[in-house]
Hints:
mainly alpha
Amino acid sequence: xxxxxxxxxxxxxxxxxDLAAQVEHAVQQAVEAAQQADETLARRVIEQDDAIDREEIxxxxxxxxxxxxxxxxxxxxxxxxxxxxxxxxxERIGDLAVNIAKQVLHQLDFGVFPEEKIDFAxxxxxxxxxxxxxxxxxxARNCLEANETIRMDDRIDELNxxxxxxxxxxxKQHPELAEYYISVIFISRHxERIGDxxxxxxxxxxxxxxxxxxxxxxxxx
Length: 221
């Protein structure tokens, strides 16, 4: 029975890794669509969301099946609970990528673009690094890497503040472009929220390995 449970967990790991790859790709495409005002790419992100949603449901059903059939305890139970939570966070990140893509389509609707555009590349790079590091930490059950990734969230928060402040300045200078810069603020906030979701994944890794809930109590020593 224990060997069969181990095999089920390995399969679950693979499913979560596949979902993470899809989500990471969706975020990258969404930001590229924002940078390039690419309608085709934005619509592709939105269309691919159904596949992410289906995968999220399959992973949840797999977790519930394992819980029902094997009734895991202790570390194995924490592992399944962690996968359930990570699965939910990945689906949320996918939704945020869709929200970014929808903002791109919204910008294209009014079709006025300023000479000075906001560069999302730094935020995107941090979000990508955080997501990859969080999944690596999950696979390796590495609390140290999870802690380091959580600390990266401060930088993405800082960049979000900078984008908002710059956008507000540009709205004052170019009120006719207010709708564009408001959309920029939404995109930046969605990226910041992706950082938050990735932080949640890292907190789940710490729970998995140490059995400690650190959401409201700070990082473990």
